[in-house]
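Why run this: before we spend reagent on co-expression, it is cheaper to look at a predicted model of the complex and decide which construct boundaries make sense. The entries below are exactly what would go into the expression plan.
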Amino acid sequence: MQRRNYAKTAVTATEPPDARTLASEAPSTEKVETDVLVIGAGVGGCMAALTASEAGVDVALVEKAWVDRSGQAGAGNDHIMAHLNQGPNDNDEAVNKWAREDTLCDVSVFDKVVTKNIPEVIVRLQAFGVVFFKNRKTGDFLRTQSLGQPAPWWLMIRNADSLKPKMANVLRKSRVSVLNWIMITNLFTSPGGEVIGAGGFNIRTGAYYAFNSKCTILATGDVVRLAANSTGNPYNSFISPYGTGSAQALAFDAGAEIADLELGKATLIPKGFSSPGMNAIAGMDAYLTNSNGERYMFRYHPLGEKAPRFDMVRATVREIAEGRGPCFVDMRHLPADDRSMLIDELLSVDKLTYRDYLKAKEVDLSSGLLEIEAGELNTWKGLLVNERSECSVPGLYAAGASSSIMNWGGLSVAMASGISAGREAALHAKNTNRLRIPPREVEREKNEALGPLSRKRERSMTPMQFEDKIRQIVARDLAGVRTEEGLKRALADLEELESRSASMFAKDTHDLMKLHEALHLLTTVKLLTVGAIHRRESRIFHWRNDYPEPREPAQHVILQKTPGEPNMIRIEYRDVR
Amino acid sequence: MPPVIDPNTCDGCTLCVRSCPGDIIYFDKVSSLPIIRYPEECWHCGLCRMECLKHLKKASAIEYFFPDAWLKNEGPLEFSATNEEDRAGSSPLRIGTCSARENEFRDQTLHAYALGQTHTTLCGLDLRTVTDLGERADIELTCATCARLSREGVSGVRGSQSGH
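The model came back. Tokens follow.
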């Protein structure tokens, strides 16, 4: 009951509480015991929580926002990748072969964690009430082809904006306890190294929560806000800007192996307005043209606009650099019905404000063109998982974009891996006893989490200033072609910044969330940098001037904390399976 | 500015507060109206407006406005380049090293963004492409942001270093 009161106070708060308010109200500590704790309630976390709960264990799902609208699919998703075993290249083998093109993917893991669970994703979504576009005559799914894939694997969702609310409804009817507005700041581990829970605070009330679980699933998505597009605003992003690497940072601190963090520009965006949608644009046969009116993609890839997304970014940047820019999306040739389906049904779901943006920019796509640019940078992967979705630390599982199986398959990969993690975590929980977290440790982590509220304002940095410095370092040494000299300079600057992290001040609990986000960003970028120093090759988004060729066989560069020596990172190379 | 709330249409239901994924919207108990407390952290996702419309049915109390910078087409993007030494091959290729980095701008944020813009436009390119671009005589690679700053009278950007 107390929890409900908290929720009410939180919803009608005029402002987040500061240290003085909290001192007068003495922030409480809530203890939550559960079998499986899921951190992050995007589509991956939700699937994990539901699957685990259906297996008969207690589940707590905790997140920074509200489950109905949180995560990358909060506003919905218009299309989803799934093979249906209905024709050539429409099967597990073809999907695994495609996954192999991401040369750092352990295909045996991808097969078990993702490919085998994709059919279940579609069955479950339909059971939740998600409706797919179908051919009126045949009843077959309407499908499109893009991203360099060998068959039309993309199904289109009709009631796309209801994806998360429908999941939330199912969650509310289930036995899963959903806790909103909680920023997780640490994982608790046992003396034996198992993950036995997590701690965090309510960003609107300052109440501290100590979750004591048998095992924990991390699913906090991509890492964004590492760089900005041409508008300079890090929140103007393609992927949700509220993902800041919590999974990677928390898991690393708990001793898990981290590998293969990529930092790249995943897509093209309308110039000045970061939004997904390029996949739908390519799938619906729109053209990409340069300032001479040429469809330039065929010069770079035989599939033209249906080329892999990375090639679309690379080609477009090159067109512009060679003087044939700006580049545009051209949909003038499309039948009016297709064009309106693309704009009104697909792009408006990719971002609900897409049409408003076109209107504000005075672009009419029936007669005009939409200028595009390469989008901002983000990072994904990191948590190395095995065939059972386990991280290298006992009691820790991962799903979605923060785990090593993520590729261009996006939400289907997130949901399929969520099913796998939920199923495996439930099995683990059934065969494990819960280990108690010592109260002293809870108290220590609570002080650590809430401490920055009581720091002195003078001579201190705001979380945003701290974040800006991380972005400067990323832009200078990590975003372009990398040099060993540059990477080492980046690492030295990041360590220097880390040494000043205790001078960050949070004026209220919203600011405290941003402070912890900044710390998670810092850890993620540090891991990215150390990984890049030891990755002596060029591949995917990692380009080294001193090692311009890919190294064969492909290897993971695995990073792990050295026990007892917090500043030492163990490096291991392991062949990709 | 991002979302703006019409006080005459809003009925204070707080759905926007709960649907915002960024903890941006709070609620003023005195006026019973939501407040956009952190507009600069808005993703422009449109969720608050959608929930509002579903609730009020006739019209949403929330309207979106885009910052000017988001609406501009500023012509072709430009690129930062290797400096003369780098082109001659005597030192490692330093793509994306904006020469303005060493200059003391009063506005550190602007500085960071200038860097971000320069570098992000280059990222995602393979080494060969970048080398090709750097070597082509007909392409002058300059930092768009710095060029703009120098036109606005920040002296020394071009002259102080060989980067442009």
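The first helix of chain A runs from residue 2 to 11. Chain A touches chain B through 86 residues (CB under 8 Å). Bring this page to Monday's planning discussion.
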